[in-house]
Design a protein that fits this description.
heterodimer; A: alpha+beta; Aldehyde Oxidoreductase, domain 4; Aldehyde Oxidoreductase, domain 3; 7-stranded mixed β-sheet; 5-stranded mixed β-sheet; 21 helices; globular; B: alpha+beta; Ubiquitin-like (UB roll); DNA polymerase, domain 1; 2 domains; binds FE2/S2 (inorganic) cluster
Chain lengths: 786, 159
């Protein structure tokens, strides 16, 4: 790349404390719920109590009698507005989620009516009085029921209950099967989960007094995409909609969607000409935002006597719930699995069929890792099962199948940039060697120790071609930044990304400070605001630092070049001999020839008569950076050490070790934090978190007593080790890393449990009762662990 | 409606409130303490933790009228003489927050633990954190921050 910083980086790579933290630790941050506007109405939604029913009638007479000032709107008022999230792949059956249900409801929690009053307490009372008469329909509560012959179709004009069924193939799978010595076939399942950022969703919308500008404050990860969607759906000009995401309390992909409530609140603000506020409560969040996972994979590997995988066949089914989500669509999770299953292995033949099944449950959306935690669970469980069946050490088996050379183009045509797959295995083997020893010789008769690992890739910073291939409404993969240096040499960076914990205000400042020879504290990074920033597709997909940071780095580079050109004239030196550092432009090796950056910034905007002849005034630059066509591939290996009590089924996680490679690290403290946070979410997926429905599609885990999140007791410290292999295809060699932590734990922990008990684990969450079932099947282990 | 008096971060106000109004809502909207946050509204996440007469309490499951005459401290009251509380500083130093939404609740729940003058093990620190959920950090940074703040307290004590 040509865009390396021309002098020694001072801040990139340093453990800089976060610039955003002082306001966050002192309660000064302001979220959507903290915003109060004059004349604001509070919205409460009446939500479906049945999983599948026709709406016979909605009776609002008690509401009008008891709350004469309340306003109420139903699907009849709002008409055809909806969430339309359909890719144009051939097998797609399109659907629309109505903003408020009209003839029919399709999951418990679906919005049915909107009630407005001036107070957040009275509006709940008022909404309680709306009487909805339902005629129950047969409930499609799971994949089997939905796919059974004769099952009622979820949408009119649908045949069967599939949003999509597609396949992806490469190489000669029949030949691979014919040549194989072993055919190993397994079924793996991952449970349904909820994403659960600690701040629930919230939206406020208000017209300005002229009625021309609609401002929407939303806890969204995708402000520009929301603006574009609202403009389309409400038929408004896009330049008259402002979307602002203020402080956002976590997202993890959940807030990377445009939801029915977003459209509804905007529509109500236009309709009533009053500011409208909707704040989701935790029960609503758990039952009716988006869910994640709920996969069934049937894998079949064709393997030689030495353990080389010749071919892999996969059948991938995901229970995606009642609707297709915007912009990722119902195809997102199953399609991701079909895309990434070959992983870090050199597999010459591949065939995957994937399908998204419609059921009467909350729609599945994107949650940290999107399909990859499930894909890696299946892939890495399968590697272990092949190793055990063939009597080969699991790490050796992986090494025999590993990709050796970069760049590598896989069987589906995706080119992997450069990684440290083999090195990371060597490193993890050393790190867990003492535990492997302990696992061989348990000290207590009723305690078993197990060590398991998961090796995986995380495709990050996907470029536009990756989205064009998906043919989903995302459409594009670039990111942008605007950098402006003011006359006092302070800098504003405007990013269209939205930051909800990633530390962009710090890392982007580090990148820009190095370019401009100033300090991170001189830089104010603003984000999440369509008014101030160029177009952006938002914060998701492990793309922020690579693409958004890359754009800030490049835009700052344009300003750097201009400052140097001004300095060159003044210092009578060639531009390439000048560096920016310590708030000065100076001739390298000659500290006496220097001029302050502040003087240059002032000349460029206030005393422009000092500029070189013909140079335009101003110090502002915008850069757009697209991702590499196939993204950049971060790699990692996770290892778990578990201790299982054979007398009770209790499982304790004793150690969790990560070796990861996200290329160039901008701030090691933030990288470690992202990895650790992701890992603990992944541990939650492996051991506890399970969103449960009964056979009538009624949700059973609707609060934090029933939906178990990881908490501090019982978790080990997460050990994080790094290898840095800069990417040759991204700015500064950075790769994304936001999701990786969450991808490996389910596989690593399941492999550890298998190692401890000698019984394969085919399903998550691995609860004590499931461990107890496994203990009953126990026999001595075949291959001696890692 | 009921008449009550609350003292919040040293400011005393007489208020007329509905008996069902949650303490959290009154702190937020009557006193402007927006650092008091709802994470669950059912007493299971610790986001809304404040001090009521010096004790950590969940303001999402307390009615304001129950606290009539009491003295309440929120995250906004933690800095002293313009300086952040040592636990607030330690949260920054140890990267104990990402989105920061849970952070005021953690700090209010654990400041008394830091101040109580004992020297806990990591297991005891984690147990003391059991009432608070953080979805971002994985907790390691928070454990380290508590450990750092206790170290700082011991240093000050021995000076
Ligand atoms: S908001 Fe009070 S405990 Fe969760
Ligand atoms: S920092 Fe986001 S929930 Fe704790």
């Amino acid at each position: 790349m040509t865009d390396r910083t021309p002098h020694q980086p001072r801040f990139v790579g340093a453990r800089i404390l976060r610039l955003e933290d002082p306001r966050l630790v002192s309660g000064q941050a302001r979220h959507v719920d903290d915003l109060v506007l004059p004349g604001m109405l509070h919205l409460r939604l009446v939500r479906s109590q049945l999983a599948h029913a026709t709406l016979a009638s909605i009776d609002v007479s008690a509401l009008h009698a008891g709350f004469p000032d309340a306003l109420v709107f139903t699907g009849q008022d709002i008409g055809a507005l909806g969430i339309r999230a359909n890719s144009d792949l051939p097998s797609v059956q399109p659907c629309v989620q109505p903003i408020l249900a009209r003839e029919r409801v399709r999951f418990v929690g679906e919005p049915v009516a909107a009630v407005l009053t001036t107070d957040s307490y009275s509006v709940e009372d008022a909404a309680e009085t709306v009487f909805v008469d339902y005629d129950a329909l047969p409930v499609l509560a799971d994949i089997e029921t939905a796919l059974a012959p004769g099952a009622p179709a979820m949408f009119e004009n649908w045949r069967g209950n599939l949003f999509i069924e597609q396949s992806r193939t490469g190489g000669d799978i029949a030949a691979a099967r014919a040549r194989a010595r072993h055919v190993i076939r397994r079924t793996y399942r991952n449970q349904r989960q909820a994403g659960v950022p600690m701040e629930c969703r919230g939206v406020i919308a208000a017209l300005d007094p002229t009625g021309r500008i609609l401002t929407v404050w939303s806890s969204t990860q995708i402000p520009h995409l929301m603006r574009t969607y609202l403009a389309q759906e409400l038929n408004w000009q896009e330049n008259r909609i402002h979307v602002i995401a203020p402080e956002v309390g976590g997202g993890f992909g959940v807030k990377g969607h445009v939801f029915a409530e977003d459209v509804l609140v905007a529509w109500l603000a236009i309709r009533t000409r009053r500011p409208i506020k909707w704040i989701e409560d935790r029960r609503e969040h758990l039952i009716a935002s988006i869910h994640a996972r709920e996969h069934v994979h049937v894998l079949e590997a064709y393997v030689t006597a030495e353990g080389k995988i010749l071919g892999l066949k996969a059948d991938i089914t995901v229970d995606v719930g009642a609707y297709s989500v915007w912009p990722f669509t119902a195809a997102s999770d199953p399609g991701m699995v079909a895309k990434v299953l070959p992983g870090p292995y050199d597999i010459a033949a591949y065939e995957a069929t994937y399908r998204a099944v419609a059921t009467n449950k909350c729609p599945i959306g994107t949650y940290r890792g999107v399909g990859r935690p499930a894909a890696v669970f299946s892939q890495e469980r399968l590697m272990n099962e092949i190793a055990i069946e063939l009597g080969i050490d699991p790490i050796t088996l992986r090494e025999r199948n590993l990709i050796g050379q970069f760049p590598y183009t896989n069987i589906l045509g995706y080119t992997y940039d450069k990684g440290s797959y083999a090195e990371s295995l060597v490193k993890i083997r050393e790190l867990v060697a003492p535990d492997v020893e302990r696992a061989r010789k348990p000290e207590k008769p009723h305690i078993r120790i197990g060590v398991g690992l998961a090796l995986f890739l995380e495709q990050t910073a996907h470029g536009t071609p990756d989205f064009v291939r998906r043919r989903s409404p995302i459409e594009t993969g670039y990111e942008s930044a605007k950098v402006e240096m003011h006359p006092d040499a302070t800098v504003s960076v405007d990013s269209g990304l939205q930051c909800h914990g990633q530390g962009h205000e710090t890392t982007f400042a580090q990148l820009v400070a190095d370019q401009l020879g100033i300090l991170p504290a001189d830089i104010l990074v603003r984000h999440g605001n369509t008014v101030t920033s160029p177009y952006s597709v938002g914060t998701w997909g492990s793309r922020g630092i690579t693409l958004g940071g890359g754009a800030a780095h490049r835009a700052a580079g344009i300003i750097r070049d201009k400052l140097i050109a001004i300095a060159a004239q003044h210092l009578q030196a060639r531009p390439e001999t000048i560096e920016l550092a310590d708030r000065q432009a100076r001739v390298k090796g000659d500290p006496t020839r220097a001029i302050g950056v502040e003087t240059l910034a002032r000349w460029a905007q206030r005393n422009v008569e000092n500029l070189p002849p013909g140079m335009e005034p101003g110090l502002i630059a915008i850069s757009f950076v697209d991702g590499p066509p196939d993204g950049s591939y971060t790699n990692a290996v996770h290892a778990a050490v578990v201790e299982i009590d054979l007398s009770t089924g209790q499982i304790k996680l004793k150690r969790f070790v990560v070796v990861e490679d996200c290329g160039t690290i901008v701030n090691p403290m933030i990288v470690d934090g992202q990895v650790r946070g992701g890992v603990v979410q992944g541990i939650g997926s492996a051991l506890w978190e399970h969103f449960v429905y009964d056979k009538d599609g009624q949700p059973l885990t609707t609060n934090f007593a029933d939906y178990l999140l990881p908490s501090a007791p019982g978790l080990p410290d997460i050990e994080v080790h790094h290898i840095q292999t800069p990417s040759p295809v991204t700015p500064l060699g950075m790769k994304g890393l936001g999701e990786g932590g969450a991808i490996g734990p389910a596989a690593a922990i399941a492999n550890a449990v298998e190692n401890a008990l000698g019984v394969p684990v085919q399903e998550t969450p691995i609860t004590p009762s499931r461990v107890w079932e496994l203990i009953k099947k126990r026999k001595p282990i075949a291959a001696g662990g890692v | 409606m009921m008449q009550i008096t609350l003292t919040v971060n040293g400011v005393t106000k007489a208020l007329t409130v509905e008996p069902r109004r949650l303490l959290a809502d009154v702190l937020r909207h009557e006193f402007g303490c927006y650092g008091v946050r709802f994470g669950c509204s059912h007493g299971a996440c610790g986001c809304c933790t404040v001090h009521v007469d010096g004790q950590p309490r969940l303001s999402c499951i307390a009615f304001a009228v129950q606290c009539d005459g009491m003295s309440i401290a929120t995250i906004e009251g933690m800095p002293k003489d313009g300086a952040l509380h040592p636990l607030q500083q330690a949260f920054i130093a140890e990267h104990a927050l990402q989105c920061g939404y849970c952070t005021p609740g953690f700090i209010m729940a654990l400041a008394p633990f830091v101040e109580r003058g004992t020297d806990p093990t990591d297991t005891e620190i984690r147990d003391a954190m059991s009432g608070n959920i953080c979805r971002c950090t994985g907790y390691d940074g928070i454990v380290a921050a508590i450990r750092r703040a206790i170290g700082e307290r011991k240093r000050v004590d021995s000076d």
